[in-house]
Amino acid sequence: MTIASSSSEQQSVVPAILTQDLTRRFGQTIALDQVNVRVECGVVHAILGENGAGKSTLMNILAGLLRATSGTLEVFGTTRDFRKPADARACSIAMVHQHFTLVPAFTVAENLSLDTTASRHLTPYSTDRSSRNAMLKAEQLGWKLDPLAITGGLPVGMQQRIEIVKALATGARIVIFDEPTAVLSANEIDDLFRVLRVLKQGGCTVVLIAHKLAEILAVADDITVLRRGKVVAVSAASQTNERELASWMVGETLASGKRSDVDQNQHIHAREHATVLKLEMVAANGDRGEQVLSNVNLTVAAGEIFGIGGVDGNGQNELAELLVGLRPMTSGAILWRGNKFEPGISPTVGYIPQDRRKDGLATRMSVQDNLLFQAVQSRSFTKGPFLAQRKLRTMAANLVTQFDIRSAGLATPVSSLSGGNQQKIVAARALYSEPELIVAVNPTRGLDIGAARYVHDQLTGASNRGAAVVVLSTDIDEIAAISHRTAIITRGSLQEYEIRGRSAEDIGLLLGGAINTESNQDTRV
Amino acid sequence: MTQPDSPKRRSVSFRLARLLLQVTGAALSFLLLLAVTLTIFGLKAKTALPAIADGAFGGWQYGHLYALSETFVEAVPLILTGLGVLVAWQAGMFSIGGEGQLLIGALAAMTVYRFTGSLPAPMVTLLMIAASVAGGALWGGIAGWLRTARNVQEVISTIMLNYIALYLVGAAVLGPLQEPSHSGPETALLPDPVLFAHILPATWTGGITARLHTGVLIALAAVPITAVWLYRTRSGFALRLTGHNADAARTAGFSIARVRITAMIFSGALCGLAGSVQLLGVSARLDQQFSPGWGYSAIPVALMGGLTPGGTLLSAIFFGALTAGTNSAERTVGVPSVVADVLLAAAVIAVVGFRAWRGRSQLATGGD
Amino acid sequence: MTASFRYRVGLLVSSACIMVVAGCGRSNAPAKAASGAPGQQAAGKPYKVALILSGSGTDHGWNQDAVEAVHDVQTALSLPASSISIKEQAVSPSQQQDNLRAYAGQGYNLIIGHGEEYQAPALHMAPQFPNSLFVISSGDKMAANVTPIVFKLEDGAYLLGMLAGGMSRTGKIAEVGAQEIAPVRSVFSAFALGAKAVNPNITILHPVYTNDWEDIGKATQATQPLIQQGADVIIQDLDSASQGVFNAVQQASTAAHPVYALGTNNNQNSAAPGVVLASAPINCSPVFVSIAKQAEAGTFKPTDTPYGLPQGVIGYIENPALASRIPASLQARIDAAEQAIKSGKLVVPMKTQ
Under CATH, which architecture does the C153-281+322-343 domain have? Predict the structure, then answer.
């Protein structure tokens, strides 16, 4: 791990924000691990990191939306413990959210008066009066806002301006921007950066969350890089470059390929004979009917693990759902052993979905029920419409033993299990029936090393017995460690790319430039 | 690693003890609530409480059997509609449509009687039951279809369907189904041979026939059938999974649309059945006031029963006892019948609130 | 035994259960012969009177009148308070039957079901309780121990019709009812008859029914179009919802163009003093007391003779606040008709069949 020393000379002035050993856990998961961040007054400070690095968790703590599990937070030299957003606002911290907090049906003026009216119940309400301050701010920034326009009908860039003005009108001296460029066009980004500089000159401190490297270098003064909940580097923007930032972001264990368990030679030999899955020019739509995947070509052999790396929201979920038969393709062809691809029948499929709590588990149902999502659908565990209770129970008990799932019993609800054990349930369900095709998305996200290792072993084991395995992950290390062949997915198109042996900078650049405009949040609260 | 069995076995006895404690606590606080409410209404708890207990369980003016019969007569429609609600809610369909399904069930049964009244009585009864089940299932199925095919929220659609059902009944009892003299907005009384038999011989209940009818057997049979379906069949599994997490159900390969429609059909069928059971067991005729809101009361009944069949049975009997008790206490000592409504609402808020609080405290202490 | 075998057996048993349930119909055997006349006081036992209402006993209308009448019975027979029991809000048929049966089972001598809806269940269960007398307000059928009270509201409605016919300036009058049932229709036809007697050319708009005895808003909405069509005197038969008609009339009525409403079932003159010209109230007290006295003595025989103006059960009361607006000639004709009905010279027809 490289900790680059901050090049901005140690200032004796009180910093705007100083955290010491700030830690936040979600159950078993550590989202922030003893993070020390120092944001000087009157600068633009960028917090950089991959998805899942802990950026949003940190920001949510600063904004009073989350409380730290341990550690301290100082604002302008005073120790603070924000219990609610209003506490942060009282300390002159405002946040410009990635997902706007505006009421679409309200006019601009009404939205701008939301915050200010809250504390003045006794004075007569006047939209004009309470939005005046914000409108003044807008003028100072050189923005023309129509106070009577309906907010929902305005373009996204304009809505963001309202959000920014709203934050500034509270008298904030520290403004946090959560991925502000994600929704903007190039021109709008330029204008935003101009405003950030204006704010800085006006004495404001700006904290900027982002993961597009070029943008950060263009506007930030200082940069803190987070990776897996830890601060891995702190640098002045002038002292670093994209390559260096990228290597901090994605880590640097790749180049050697030392964690790879895979015997490449033996594998190449096997694969020549047994390509089983073949995608040709496949396209598919997302949930809202927008095209997400285009021209995807892909071949996977029996006994092969095909790893696909990429930043969240580039089409991984859609591709995975396509492969397990949950999403139709709009064009192209998929073949299984040269014949029609009928997932579930030919081939049999095991699926580890990306978000176990959303798609993989019913957390209030029992461990046993959760292990049986697939089994209850198979004829061998049912008699007519009825479930073969004893058989199912025996099988669940066997899986618990076999996959080392630790819980207080088969009847306990899954919500009481640790994240690792929950993921083991999802993996056990996907793998026990020895399916021919296994699709896993971020199979080790949020797991500790032991559990992650275990899941990797299971996937490797499945490939050794001859299954075709497709792993999609945002963790490049993971892809490099377990895959026979690798590819990168960017904006819905797939590009075969040998990750092993490449420098971290190369991959970082590739991913950094490939970040989709719809990036996900790091943690769910 | 422990045997998966042993912790569960231990927890059963532990849970039993805890349950006992909770029930005792709940009963005591409920009695207190009852006493306070009665005092607020200006009644002496000392005379009113025994009068309510007498109406529900007997022992004073009434024989035990007669009073218990009243309790069960009141509980029967709540058992069936409560089961209907729990089936829908377990599938994540927040159906408010029990009332409409019950009315449509009764209307369908009455319509069938109109056309088949001349057949042998047992056959007419069977056809009426079948018609009510079909009618309720249709009414529930419409809401299910609207949700899955048109994304109309079932909360809205079921309420609208309730109104349609109510006004259909109103139109029918003023039109084609009205009693022959056309003087009242109601159907004629069904003849005795068609109706469910009374179970208790009059001699057991002091010479007055108790109203407990064989429909109670249908209601009691529906409890284990629903339980088996929910917990012992594949489609019941899919239903519960969909209710807990529809995304996970879809990912696991279940058709959510099918599950939701099935749940609404089954839910509607149970509520429709309640309509014919009530028609054949008690009311013997249909009018717009046929139901005093059983389909709505079913929601608190099912919620208080923890959305489980056994719990719903118990809570329906509890509601039945309270209704029978306050009904009778109004006649004997003048307890206003609204007291029952106040108490039921308070009991539901207490129970549901307690569950929510417990759920949250579990969430706070036990993992994510 | 395998699990699925058990389920199959279970299903079989439950369907058999339903077959059995459907198979045995109900028997309705009458009880032992009566000792004495129905409703007669049994030796050594207190005389007990029960009243069952489908609505609230404080509705300023149909139900409240019955509550007051039962208290008059208590006074007339000098009964202790414990001898009187009133059950309110017996909304559903199930509750109505339950209460009839429960009172009869507890040996109440006189059980008044206050509404036509009690008739069918009372007739059905009456043979089982030969010692109780079931009194059905607004009923029309008799049995050994069931008697209807036929309220001849038509007497009052006829006089209201005369008033309406004489007071209407537009020549159009209207009727708003809750449900299109025979008693309501009969009242409206008596009203029309009275109006035509005064003004043969009067137009009576087609009656409007709200299908709700309680919803005031629906009543208002039903009335407004009638006023727009030119109706300026409106009779209603709506029970608790009648206030909706009064509201609509109050809104529409001006000094230049007055619109009037008429009260039925109760004295509603004070409900909207500016617009209610007169009311035809039902007064249960005389008939309840008369039946109770005869029954206690054992001399009562069920009868379906109507109780109307001559018996003092139906009244005709003009609103003193508006009485000055009624022309003397019209007043004279109405007074004459009232006397004629009371003396039996004029019989208003009932069309309840």
Answer: 3-Layer(aba) Sandwich (3.40)
